[in-house]
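Example 3.2
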Amino acid sequence: MYDDFLARILEPDTCLPAQFWGNRGLSRQLEGEKRLMIAILKDAVECLEKYRGARNGSGRELYENALEWIEDKGTEWLFSFDNICGLLGFDPDYMREFLLKREQRLARPSRGKLYSFTASAAD
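Structure, written as tokens:
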């Protein structure tokens, strides 16, 4: 009898997702947190877009902060890039790679195009 009781309390609980989530009560509680996470991710992407060409001042700082946040692979902070992507159902490595490649492609060079002024053999 004691063994049956012990086996029952150590047995893992099984339930359907609908039983666990109920009538979306917990989901409604998480809506605010999810909206905040979406807003943070959206703000970072908008900072990359808006301040990409900024050379100094607060715009450049916002751009650098957004870029640094995306590049950081840490998960200690609840609102880290990896945690937000993971909780929203996005692959953080894929998102990071996509955004960073896009920045490399779209970022304006800090200097103009360099031209060589050496004499050619035809001169």
